[in-house]
Amino acid sequence: MISWSIWRIPALVACFLLMAAACGSDDNGQAYEADRVGATASASIVNPDGDVVGSAEFEQGPTGVLITMSMSGLTPGAHGIHLHEVGACTPDFKAAGGHLTATDEAQHGLKNPERTVDNHDNGDLPNLYAAADGIAQAEFFTSLVTISGGSMPALLDADGSTLVIHENPDDHLTQPIGGAGGRVGCGIIR
């Protein structure tokens, strides 16, 4: 019986060390779980008629989320693209709600001089550009959200979130959506 107990001590120490290694902190001292790095989500993007016109993949990195997407059927040129607060698209994409934000005082616009580290719009992304044939392929990186939790709002929180594409470019200044106009694409992030 004693030899069996001694044998278990190294196994218990090894388990404790593995559990400790699974935890860490980000540059701001916020705790995160190492197993969240590599977490993924995806979205099928539909147009206002409900036709699937694109897809987006989301992957959690150690300091933010990488978004890889492709879409067709857009008018050529720039389109505002944002992360919205609710995981719903119908009716008319209004169910997606406003931008995903951590505060009611959030300031939209990547170039907005009123924007600070404490009042940024977590749903802001650079514009998506469609070629002459209406096809867009892009990668975006944002440190303002997480996939499933942590120090920033989570895409997969209780009410979910969406990726919304607008008809016009985002000027990154005008409140509340940068003059991006109507919603022409919506994907529920799952």
Describe what this molecule looks like in 3D.
By secondary structure, this protein is mainly beta. It has two domains: 2-32; 37-188, Superoxide dismutase, copper/zinc binding domain (Immunoglobulin-like), CATH 2.60.40.200. It has one helix and eleven strands. Strands 7-10-11-3-4-5-9 form a seven-stranded antiparallel sheet, with no helix packed on it. It has a two-stranded antiparallel sheet with strand order 1-2. It has a two-stranded antiparallel sheet with strand order 6-8. The longest helix has 20 residues, at 2-21. The N and C termini lie far apart (50 Å).
Throw out a few tags for this protein:
single chain, 190 residues, mainly beta, Immunoglobulin-like, 2 domains, seven-stranded antiparallel β-sheet, two-stranded antiparallel ribbon, 1 helix, 11 strands, 11% helix
Fold topology:
Blueprint: H1 2-21, E1 23-25, E2 31-33, E3 40-46, E4 52-60, E5 65-71, E6 77-79, E7 81-84, E8 128-130, E9 136-142, E10 162-166, E11 183-188
Antiparallel strand pairs: 1-2, 3-4, 3-11, 4-5, 5-9, 6-8, 7-10, 10-11
Quick overview of this protein structure:
The chain has 190 residues and is mostly beta strands. The chain has one helix and eleven strands, in the order αβββββββββββ. 11% of the residues lie in helices and 30% in strands.
